[in-house]
Design a protein that fits this description.
Helix content: 55-70%
Strand content: 5-15%
Radius of gyration: 15 Å
Shape: globular
Length: about 100
């Protein structure tokens, strides 16, 4: 596995490889979501999480080029995959908060 890639295991056993999107991908994502979607912070945060999935069960996932591909990606990730992503991000947030507390003390 390459640097900065995280393996997430879903409740169903499905394996996801997560890697944060890079700035150029973020620009592409803004264009895909359009003016209205890109102004909605909640929507953009969720879509950004989904687009950070690079492999599903060792099969490469292409970065979406349009809304149809974005919908397909969400369906391929599935509800258990979305839950796995959320759990991972919440755990990293907790680690960051612990680091901040250590620095304060």
């Amino acid at each position: 596995m390459q640097d900065n890639q995280i393996k997430l295991i879903c409740d169903s056993g499905k394996e996801l490889i997560y890697k944060e999107i890079i700035p150029s991908e973020m620009l592409d994502l803004i264009l895909i979501c359009g003016a209205e979607g890109s102004r909605n912070d909640t929507y953009m945060n969720i879509v950004q999480q989904w687009c950070s999935i690079r492999y599903i069960n060792n099969v490469p996932v292409p970065f979406p080029k349009n809304k149809h591909m974005l919908n397909t990606l969400a369906n391929d990730i599935g509800a258990d995959g979305i839950k796995a992503i959320e759990n991972y991000l919440l755990s990293t947030e907790a680690e960051d908060n612990n680091d901040i507390d250590l620095i304060k003390n």
